[in-house]
Amino acid sequence: MAKEEPRSISRDLQELQRKLTLLIEFFQNNPKVIAFTKSPVGQYLDRHPFLALALLVFIVTSAVPVGFFLLLVILTTLVALVGVIILEGLVISVGGLSLLCILCGLGFVSLAMSGMMMASYIIASSLINCRFSPRPLTQQNPSGDCQLAMKATDFKGLYQE
Fold first, then answer.
1. Global pTM?
2. CB within 8 A of 111, min separation 6: which ones?
3. How far is Cα 38 from Cα 27, in angstroms, rounded to an integer?
4. Residues 70, 95: Cα–Cα separation, whole Å
5. For residues 153 and 139, is the Cβ–Cβ distance under 8 A?
6. How many Å apart are CA 46 and CA 31, to the nearest integer?
7. pLDDT tens figures, 67-95
């Protein structure tokens, strides 16, 4: 049963990879995405993936505070219709300053989150590549160190040529 378990995991990973590939192809073939990637902003974000991920995390996390601020503006506008105009300016300015502080904090949080997400992606993908590489079992290092095993096989190939 121990030999069948990695095969099922490998099969599951191949199925997941196929589904992710289909999802990526769907997004890449979308006309709006194609138009955005051809724009100068899209090309800049394509060259800077960390900034693109940080921007995506920032947009997602800042949606709730911006929504609360817009709700505050609408409510104070309704109150101003009743007759409290001076209070409306004060409430909107205080709300705007608090929104600015929240968005600055979310900017730092999004940079930290995108850094952790990219680091975990790199670590997970290298571990998966190390574990499920198509090398025969004879080339794997018994100590389990994938990097050393790959370097050792690369050097053996260089000396044989």
1. 0.51
2. 54
3. 14
4. 10
5. yes
6. 17
7. 889 998 888 888 777 776 677 777 788 88
